[in-house]
Amino acid sequence: MAATHVLAIDQGTTSSRAMVFDHGGHVVAVGQLEHRQVLPRAGWVEHDPLEIWQNVREVVGQALSRAELNHADIAAVGITNQRETTVVWDRTTGEPITNAIVWQDTRTDRICAELAADGGPDRYADRVGLPLATYFSGPKIAWILRNVPGARARAEAGDLLFGTTDSWLVWNMTGGVRGGIHATDVTNASRTMLMDLRTLSWSEEIAADMGIPLAMLPEIRSSAEVYGEGRAHGLLTGVPIAGILGDQQAATFGQACFTPGMAKNTYGTGNFMLVNTGTTPVRSRNGLLTTVCYRLGGAPAVYALEGSIAVTGSLIQWLRDNLGIIASAADVEALAATVPDNGGAYFVPAFSGLFAPHWRADARGALVGLTRFVNRGHIARAALEAAAFQTREVLDAMNADSGMPLTELKVDGGMVANETLMQFQADILGVDVVRPRVAETTALGAAYAAGIAVGFWAGEEDVTANWEEDRRWHPLMDEDERERTYRLWRKAVTRTFDWVDADVR
């Protein structure tokens, strides 16, 4: 009997999920587990790769069990992942040589400054589409090779492998030390600072500048092809692993943004807005990133401009875990609804510096405009509004780069269930905000890529046919009020600059 479903593994910043989809793109079953956030010191964020691998195996079992399916029912597996998070492991033992360095981590600021001393922060931007910033994987690899005892010698001897978490999972799923496949796709490779956007190959020159042996790097493949079959995980034995997309590119694919000018914004740990720019990379002049959007098999790569925001959903987790003013992330909407506005408080969550469009590694978080009037409800509302204000900054940059102002914004991710946030987002942007019926389009996009690779879906036309609108928010805020509150937000942002000095830890 022919396989009837596709499974997606969504390895995210705070959790790993497995989701089973039917041919209509509907969610059949989900398994999900959070993993620990390891915070050794201020600005450092780590994950345990072995914990992630164990959790992925468990959530796959959960999803298949809840769907009452087994491997014979699965046509293909797609993987989507937190993109820049860096894993280095020993090819002979399968053991990571240190914890994964997460994309939010800022420990590589001095390495980035060293590299920028010759050519400035845009030294490599013409080739890789990215500024020198702590966000990206290349400097994280360099840090590991400099600071983990024996790592450089082992890397130069060919004993160490690098990968973002997609590569780590594929290698383990296809056999690990017994012949595991060391590969990534073009979207993840485009986030390392090591891949030339035009040739879609590793840059020997940039790798040499960072002191990274090319033998560590995975093979760059397309986003939709059969990389190998499941071997190490008995639940997926023999199932083709056929799709890889970085999480934000996967969401763009799942939102059916296939025409140049179409854009989506994902609300997760951070916010990430991408606009399809077609088959030619476009250099941003307004603080955005140029990245690969997707590549299907041997077809030309499609590119995007991206506005990356480091902290949005993770700010709500911070309110829960660090301040304890809410018991669960879902409680923030009810708390914010206890007040009519932010009470004059603005929360700029520059916990990892500021990403697009500012790119200020020296920034740190600030809660400003406080008076004795401000209470827990105002702080909750200010935290939600921070996601919307940061999105407005990115949208303004995107409109300036494209010259074609967006008339609506497709949204997805966990925070789009928060209707207070979605209405404020429409208000502060002045355009409609549209939520699809399947809001978790990250996993769906990875499933589509894998399914297309094996013929389960015909191509982009099936993705477009399956997309359905769930809810639309229209802007209700007066134009003067929109610009007044946005002006105050921008003033608050400037208060976060220049905080980090050489002696700040």
Summarize the structure.
The chain has a seven-stranded mixed sheet.
Account of the 3D structure:
There is one protein chain. The chain is of the alpha+beta class and 505 residues long. The chain contains 16 helices and 23 strands. It has helices spanning 49-67, 109-116, 125-128, 137-147, 151-156, 165-173, 186-189, 204-210, 247-254, 313-323, 331-336, 376-402, 419-429, 441-453, 460-466, 479-494, and strands at 5-11, 15-21, 27-34, 46-47, 74-81, 87-90, 100-101, 160-163, 183-185, 195-196, 201-202, 219-221, 224-229, 240-246, 263-267, 271-278, 289-294, 302-309, 346-348, 366-368, 408-412, 432-436, 469-473. Strands 17-18-16-15-21-22-23 form a seven-stranded mixed beta sheet. A six-stranded mixed beta sheet has the order 3-2-1-5-14-13, sandwiched between helices. It has a two-stranded antiparallel sheet with strand order 4-7. The chain starts with a strand and ends in an 11-residue tail after the last helix.
Beta percentage is 15-25%
Low-confidence region ranges:
none
Radius of gyration: 22 Å
- How many distinct beta strands? 23
Distance between the termini: 60 Å
Strand order of the largest sheet: 17-18-16-15-21-22-23
For the report, how would you describe the main beta sheet?
Answer: 7 strands, mixed
Helicity level, as a percent range? 25-40%
Structural class: alpha+beta
Instruction: Report the mean per-residue pLDDT as an integer.
Output: 93
